[in-house]
Amino acid sequence: MIRTETICMSHIFITGASSGIGAALASQWLADGHKVSAVARRRGRLDEIGQDHTSFFAGEGDVTDAGRMAELVDEATTRLGPIDVAIMNAGIYVPQDSRQIDPAVYAQHMNVNYMGVINSLAPIVPIMAKRKSGQIAIVSSVAGWRGLPKAAAYGPTKAALISLAESLVFDLAPQGIDVRVICPGFVDTESTAVNDYEMPGLMTADAAATEITRGLRGDKFVIQFPKSFTRQMGLLRWLPDRKFFQFVAKRTGISLK
After folding, report:
1. Structural domain boundaries of the chain?
2. What is the pLDDT of residue 77?
3. Number of other residues whose CB lies within 10 A of the CB of residue 110
4. Is residue 106 flagged as an active site residue?
5. Catalytic pick among 93, 106, 154, 197
6. Would the pTM count as exceeding 0.85?
């Protein structure tokens, strides 16, 4: 396990780092004196985060491009050394009305949220395996625990990431690689700004980044927050299906008749 508080200059690789949780993580890790490689499509925002920091690499690229991700991992390691912690954070969320399904939207979610993680891990895992050390954190969501309204495109990708992280443990733990999965509740980001309903337990990106850092220093496989909200969501996983549908429908004003 990578105990970040005991390492003077860890190299942290973060995808989706131009805004939201990714940007907050990059800023906090830089402030703590670590080396940060930040990857996103918006180079200008990355440059703003890394200004005045010599231990920062801004990698402009799209996680859906496997070749580009391999190039960025190679360039990041060349500039800042081997990657100690990789945080797979890039993702999109577009609310869906499942009465009108656009396959392209669903495919885009899978390409960014799921395959984007695969494309990023492909060049990173061999490096960590060769060194017999490293930490990988995959950002999923409580939306991956059970189906939720408007999340028909988003939720399944997050459920897939949870399964991916669990499966990776069996292969990577023997190689000295610590795998975690992160399941936030509602975080105030560009993605959640499109929601037109009350978001219980809404927290800032900075607060979410702090929770993630604390979780990575601990020993729990699932890093979930805020606790008050994730405990409630966790209980929904154990409800009988009929009770689950009735409860969520009532709380969201949906009629199942």
Report:
1. 4-252
2. 97
3. 15
4. no
5. 154
6. yes
